[in-house]
Amino acid sequence: MTIPFGWNLITAGYIEQSVHGVVVSTLGLLFMGKLLEPIWGSKEFLKFIFIVNFLTSVCVFITAIALYYLTMQEKYLYMPLSGFHGVLAGFLVGIKQIVPDQELYLLKIKVKWLPSLMLLLSIAISFFTPESATYLPTLIFGTYIGWIYLRYLQRKPESKLRGDPSEDFAFSTFFPEFLRPIIDPIASIFHRMLCGKSEVSSNPQGYTLGGAPLLGSDPIEASRRRERGARALEERLAAEKLAAGRDSEEPHIEGNDHV
């Protein structure tokens, strides 16, 4: 149905096909947006949602067409594909960038591993569910598009820089340590495709595009961004803890409540 209704590539990401999908997407937007929006700013936050949603939909559409021609199964042409989970996967990458070393108390893992664990769990579940084609490509492309945008394209108004070329946010950081020597050479090929040339010492601001200097963030800026993210998270947790303490100390007053 995307041909000729091309606007589906924009609108599909905002339509859920089930009640639990609506609940998960709403909670994910509220909780992850509460951390990312104050750091990125409202305009950049909305821009991230639009770009990741649109490009993820384009990639999923192309994948569906390719699967049809490879298998000649018409289900890949007509199965409904929609949902906000691609953007939520991109949000996890954003949180990985901002507070990578923050530890989740319940799971006892660091935040930087959340995108990888989400994809690993989704791939494992796909072997046991026939509906995996309706969500797995969206999660994979949402994660990858989110990383590409934050790695190479996101502008920083306060510093007029672009992207995050720090080693802590390299593509190989999504994989275990022992796989990185294999992943890095492959990732460098796509890096040169996106940047034209590798970073050179004469270009202190970062990436180049087609041989011309391209504004890019340096390691100092990336470190500052992570510090701001960690500080914002700590302040939010402290405020919530203080509010909870005040609520527990308020005396209970009997009587009628009126709205």
TrEMBL record:
Listed GO CC annotations: Golgi apparatus; membrane
Organism encoding this protein: Gossypium raimondii (Peruvian cotton)
UniProt keyword annotation of Membrane present: yes
Residues that span the membrane, as ranges: 18-36, 48-70, 76-99, 111-129, 135-153
Protein name as it appears in the record: Peptidase S54 rhomboid domain-containing protein
Membrane topology designation: Multi-pass membrane protein
KW Thylakoid (keyword) present: no
Keyword annotations: Membrane, Transmembrane, Transmembrane helix
Location in the cell: Membrane
Taxonomic lineage: Eukaryota, Viridiplantae, Streptophyta, Embryophyta, Tracheophyta
